[in-house]
Design goal:
The complex is a heterotrimer of chains A (477), B (295) and C (321).
Chain A lengths: L19 E2 L1 E3 L2 E3 L6 E6 L4 E7 L3 H19 L4 H17 L1 H12 L3 H22 L13 E2 L2 E5 L5 H14 L3 E5 L6 H12 L7 E3 L4 H8 L6 E5 L2 H10 L6 E5 L5 E4 L5 H13 L11 E5 H15 L20 H16 L3 E4 L14 E4 L6 H4 L6 E7 L2 H9 L6 E5 L3 H10 L4 E4 L18 E2 L4 H6 L2 E2 L1
Parallel strand pairs in A: 1-5, 7-8, 7-10, 8-9, 10-11, 12-13, 12-17, 13-16, 15-16, 17-18
Antiparallel strand pairs in A: 2-3, 4-5, 6-20, 11-19, 14-15
Helix pairs in contact in A: 2-4, 3-4, 4-5, 9-10
Chain B lengths: L33 E5 L5 E6 L3 H20 L2 H17 L1 H12 L3 H19 L5 H5 L1 E2 L6 E9 L2 E5 L6 H12 L3 E5 L6 H11 L8 E4 L3 H10 L5 E3 L6 H12 L4 E3 L15 H4 L2 E9 L3
Parallel strand pairs in B: 5-6, 5-8, 6-7, 8-9
Antiparallel strand pairs in B: 1-2, 3-4, 4-10
Helix pairs in contact in B: 1-8, 2-4, 3-4, 4-6, 8-9
Chain C lengths: L9 H8 L3 H9 L6 H11 L6 H13 L1 E4 L7 H12 L13 E4 L4 H8 L5 E5 L10 H13 L4 E5 L2 H5 L3 H15 L3 E5 L8 H13 L4 E3 L11 H18 L4 E3 L7 H14 L12 E3 L2 H14 L12
Parallel strand pairs in C: 1-2, 1-8, 2-3, 3-4, 4-5, 5-6, 6-7
Classes of the chains: A alpha/beta (477), B alpha/beta (295), C alpha/beta (321).
Chain lengths: 477, 295, 321
């Protein structure tokens, strides 16, 4: 008999989305200088959620000036212990309003409420809590006895984990004594704007945190602003390249967290049921909108048939749909643009000879959706094995020996993350040494923690976020 | 113009041919070119090889080939080899002092002091081989049943434009890059390149695997852009780039493959000052490994 | 994992891998390992499923139909067992629409009373046997125990495996005992209790599950209820994976019974979600999945009443026997 789960929607009534939002500059919401605005949309319904300001060059000037003033007069001179207490306060308010933030994140981003509720928002609070404690202990962090802040940080974040990426940027910057101007992604500005309100509730001094909404032009103006000391960016490798070019010849310090095409390597002796879970979590978590997603599955040939059968069976149980339904596993694709990109790349995958299999999930009529998909018969030469799809699409390749696995795994200009599945300890440690990636998950995948540094090799960017290492990006020494 | 006929010396000195150092060998530039190097007094000292883009290419190939073995060697082994290099340097103190003095001028004792500082600097960096991971790595107390460890790893192939300070400056940029397991393509000081090639002779006889250090002499403006644009170079140290416009251009080029870039110092570097770990850490990546803990 | 020649059934497969003590050992140690953290996490994630309204109604009724209402006390008497049987047959006297439990589960001495009481109803009689709960008696005594229960009319026999033999690696001995018990059962269904709380690792749970299935068990059951921990979600997950894989390999379907420690309707529904998303809906039937429990039944009834009336129920309104 079939067990049909009835809809179990989280209530939207907990969030109060205003019809229009200004920019958050110097502690208050202000209209953009030239009055420009954009719409943010619920990707699950295509419903317009709010009008949001588009910051222009004059707004960037204003926000950077506010941040500079706050840095010089308030936040820079403030004892670390006092900065810490502000950050602890913010962490607590986030915990208190966790449900509201989770619902808003799912509405604006399309991610399942189970993830925003159990992963994103708890990690956001944990991140502020972790870095709060560093604010008055910077001399013990291993970057000199008296490390100094850099000044004003210009930060640009992506749409895949909107509030979590904000936390990764703002928490260490503030702990180290910097002030920030942050631009959330064009399609997911709402939780950053709610965060601005949280800053007000925490009585954070004006200008310490400034939030400028807008698109690529706003981000460019911020990154290229002459009075910004530090640039932190998470997003595509292409934009990362432009930023690296634009800062040439300046004294700006830069950290970049860019794309990836992670290999998830499964050996025949792996704990197969957990490996299947790890593969699913690796590529279908957050609709595959994850820079460190395990998008290239490398399976030892002797077990590939069995593993794929298990994987497909497991994929048939994935529940795709309403992000606010507590039983949804895979939510909406964040935007029409991203959906088009995923479709294009998967079509190319088919044209190039990949065998496509999509989970037979019913998809809603409205909104942006893509069924969890696996491509087999993929080789290193296929575009779907090389390019970041940033969607719920897995490419499967095989290998015969550990050496071959290493060669294939490393055969990419990226180097953000990698996965290893084997019950043999010495093989894990050998592979962990050989894989050119900043995060190696062995017998697990897509785990994050405020104490754990995250960041890539090669074209996946430079610098680390999280942990003691994450402080270094915001300290002069 | 008629010149005075010199009397033949009692014994004719055997001159050294200064060549490149690539893959553990001393080839001439594939271009067949050389350029005259003058001493501080403006007198001709020797011809140095004038490296071309193809020499850069060969050097990067050699450096990449050496990377696996060198980065995979034990830290103790790398430390031993670097210390061995210091021992070899010590044995050639007089030769280096002569070359430094010829290149840079100044007194003999100043040149000696520089050589001694360079040797001591090398020893200082050699000792970091098996300590940097302990200073830069740590366990991370994650909120879950996981082992989680961050440790530094070498960035890969590093392109270095060495400063003009002919031995101390050279050693100060080279030793920190290789001690952690990187391999190097180094562009020696354009005007004072000869001590670098003599250093290569030391490297070639110190158990340092061929290709770990590759030294090119020539015009920085000609070769550095090829290094900055090479897709198999992972990082760039622009310390020795004196031309600010060139430095910007190189940084921009390096951005195409997101190389890690160490910009030239704002003011002239003080090579005599005690170094910190920045030159080590700039060319390190942090790798974090997770594993569940369960019976 | 060993691959099966096409067309071979469970018996051929079992004969092949259990041919010798060595082949059995090789097979059990060749099963894929279980990563504890990953398994725990999977079970925990499935436990966040939110089962509401019509789905909850359906699940509560199914769970009631899956209960093996159990009493296994030294102080059990015919009177106690008669009351238990009455409860199993009609869990909610106030509601004729409430389904009966699957079975009652008692000691062998009380089987005649139970058989007598449930006669004519759909409720089956299960008896623990084989010197439950320790099993530390000679095989002949275990077989006599089983024979007595079956002779008294038990429909189902819940045996315990020899954990000592299992943990010391004498898999063949455990195998032979189960085979002998199965034979003694005759037509009665055999549930094999692994006592997972004593096995120490999920790898052992997986091996013991396969061992029991290969030896002919009809059900694999987590626990006696006398050892802590008893049933847990991750242990049940491992066992559900085992029956799923066994059917895939041999074509034979085996049931699963978590027992002990399942007290709330919420817990029971989590188990049903686990069944649904691990083994699949073929197992969502009292023939293939049971709960060994006693107090669980009343909580299921209270939740059922809450759904029907829209108000929270009180324990005084449900019978305690």
């Amino acid at each position: 008999m079939a067990f049909e789960y009835a809809p179990a929607p989280e209530s939207r009534s907990i969030v109060d989305i205003r019809p229009a939002y200004g920019l958050f500059v110097n502690g208050e919401f202000v209209a953009p200088a030239d009055g420009e605005s954009m719409k943010t949309v619920d990707p699950a319904t295509e419903e317009v959620l709010a009008e949001v300001g588009v910051a222009g060059a004059a707004d960037v000037d204003r926000a950077v000036a506010a941040a500079r003033k706050a840095y010089q007069r308030v936040w820079g001179p403030m004892p670390g212990a006092e900065r810490a207490k502000y950050l602890y306060r913010i962490a607590r308010i986030i915990q208190e309003r966790a449900r509201e933030l989770a619902v808003l994140e799912s509405i604006d981003n399309g991610k399942p409420i189970r993830e925003s509720r159990d992963v994103d928002i708890p990690l956001v609070a944990a991140h502020f809590f972790y870095y709060a404690g560093w604010a008055d202990k910077l001399g013990h962090a291993g970057f000199g006895a008296n490390p100094q802040p850099l000044g004003v940080a210009g930060q640009v974040i992506p749409w895949n984990f909107p509030l979590l990426m904000l936390a990764w940027k703002i928490a260490p910057a503030l702990a180290a004594g910097n002030t920030v101007v942050l631009k959330p992604a064009e399609t997911t500005p709402l939780t950053a704007l709610l965060f601005a309100e949280i800053c007000q509730l925490a009585d954070l001094p004006a200008g310490v945190v400034n939030i400028l909404t807008g698109a690529g032009d706003t981000g460019r103006a911020l990154v290229e602003h002459g009075d910004v000391d530090k640039v932190a960016f998470t997003g595509s490798t292409e934009v990362g390249r432009q930023i690296a070019r634009s800062v040439a010849g300046t004294r700006k310090r830069v950290t970049l967290e860019l794309g990836g095409k992670a290999a998830n390597i499964v050996f025949a002796d792996a704990a197969l049921d957990q490996a299947v879970e790890g593969i699913v979590n690796g590529i279908f978590f957050n609709q595959g909108h994850v820079c460190c997603a395990g998008s290239r599955l490398l399976v030892e040939e002797s077990v590939s048939e069995e593993l794929l059968a298990r994987l497909k069976r497991r994929m048939t149980t994935l529940r795709v749909g309403d992000p606010l339904d507590k039983n949804t596993d895979v939510g909406a694709i964040n935007s029409a643009e991203q959906l088009a990109k995923i479709r294009t790349l998967t079509e190319i995958g088919e044209q190039e000879g990949g065998q496509r299999w999509s989970a037979p999930c019913p998809l809603p009529d409205r909104g942006f959706w893509f069924s969890p998909t696996v491509f087999t018969e993929v080789t290193q030469a296929h575009r779907i094995a090389r390019e970041e799809i940033f969607g719920p699409v897995l490419s499967v390749l095989t290998f015969r020996t550990p050496d071959e696995a290493v060669v294939k795994a490393n055969n990419t200009p990226y180097g953000l993350s990698a996965g290893i599945w084997t019950e043999k300890g010495s093989r894990i440690l050998w592979l962990a040494d050989k894989l050119r990636a900043g995060v190696v998950w062995a017998n697990t995948f897509n785990k994050f923690d405020p104490t754990s540094p995250f960041g890539g090799y090669q074209e996946s960017g430079y610098g680390r976020e999280g942990g003691r290492h994450g402080l270094e990006a915001y300290l002069a020494h | 113009m008629p010149t005075e006929q010199k009397a033949a010396p009692a014994r004719l000195a055997v001159r050294k041919t200064y060549k490149l150092f690539v893959g553990g060998k001393f080839p001439r530039s594939e271009s067949g070119r050389s350029y005259p190097v003058q001493g501080a007094d403006g007198e001709f000292v020797a011809n140095a090889a004038l490296a071309s883009r193809k020499d850069v290419r060969d050097a990067v190939v050699a450096a990449r080939k050496a990377f696996g073995g060198w980065s995979g060697a034990t830290a103790y082994n790398r430390g031993q080899i670097l210390y061995r290099i210091a021992e070899m340097l010590e044995g050639r103190r007089d030769q280096f002092a002569d070359e430094v003095r010829t290149a840079r001028g100044g007194t003999r004792s100043a040149a000696r002091a520089d050589v001694d500082a360079a040797i001591d600097r090398w020893v200082w960096y050699a000792g970091w081989a098996d300590k940097i991971a302990q200073v830069r790595g740590n366990a991370n107390p994650v909120a879950g049943p996981y082992f989680n460890l961050s440790a530094p790893e070498p960035t890969g192939v590093v392109g270095v434009v060495a400063p003009t300070e002919p031995l101390l400056g050279l050693v100060s940029v080279l030793a920190p890059v290789i001690v952690t397991g990187n391999t190097v393509v180094l562009l020696a000081s354009e005007t004072q390149p000869l001590p670098a090639i003599t250093l290569a002779e030391v490297l070639a006889t110190s158990d340092l695997p061929g290709g770990v250090v590759n030294l090119l002499t020539g015009r920085v403006a000609e070769t550095a852009p090829w290094l900055a644009g090479h897709a198999d170079v992972n990082a760039l140290d622009l310390t020795g780039v004196d031309d600010a416009d060139l430095a910007v251009e190189l940084e921009r080029t390096a951005a195409d493959t997101l190389k890690r870039v160490l910009r030239p110092p704002l003011t002239g570097a003080d090579w005599k000052a005690e170094p910190d770990t920045d030159r080590l850490t700039t060319f390190l990546e942090t790798k974090t490994v997770w594993h569940p803990k369960g019976a | 994992m060993t691959t099966l020649p096409a067309g071979a059934g469970a018996a051929e497969f079992a004969a092949e891998v259990t041919a010798t003590a060595a082949s059995l050992r090789t097979f059990l140690h060749g099963l894929p390992g279980v990563d504890k953290v990953g398994a725990d996490q999977r079970a925990a994630t499935l436990a966040t499923r939110s089962i509401k309204t019509t789905a909850k109604q359906w699940a509560l009724d199914l769970a009631i139909r899956m209960v093996d209402l159990t009493t296994l006390e030294g102080a059990d008497t015919p009177g106690k067992v008669r009351a238990l049987c009455a409860k199993a047959m009609r869990p909610d006297p106030a509601d004729r629409g409430c389904p009966p439990a699957a079975a009652v589960c008692v000691y062998p001495a009380l089987v005649p009373t139970a058989v007598e009481t449930v006669r004519g109803s759909s409720v089956r009689v299960a008896s623990v046997a084989t010197a439950f709960p320790s099993g530390q008696v000679p095989l002949s005594v275990k077989l006599d125990d089983v024979a007595a229960a079956v002779a008294a009319g038990a429909d189902e026999v819940d045996m315990v495996i020899d954990r000592g033999a299992f943990l010391s690696g004498r898999y063949d001995e455990v195998f032979r005992q189960i085979v002998a018990v199965k034979e003694a059962c005759g037509a009665a269904h055999l549930k094999v209790i692994l006592e997972t709380g004593e096995l120490g690792t999920y790898d052992n749970v997986r091996r013991a599950s396969w061992l029991a299935m290969l030896a002919g068990g009809d059900f694999i059951k987590t626990s006696t209820g006398k050892v802590s921990p008893a049933a847990t979600l991750p242990v049940t997950l491992i066992m559900l994976e085992a029956v799923r894989d066994f059917r895939e390999l041999t074509g034979r379907q085996i049931g699963v019974k978590p027992a002990g420690g399942i007290r709330s309707a919420k817990d029971a529904i989590r188990y049903l979600v686990l069944v649904n998303e691990t083994a699949g809906d073929d197992w969502l039937d009292p023939a293939w999945f049971r709960f060994g429990a006693s107090s669980l039944l009343n909580d299921l009834l209270m939740q059922r009443s809450k759904l029907a009336t829209g108000r929270y129920a009180g324990p005084d309104y449900f019978t305690l026997d």
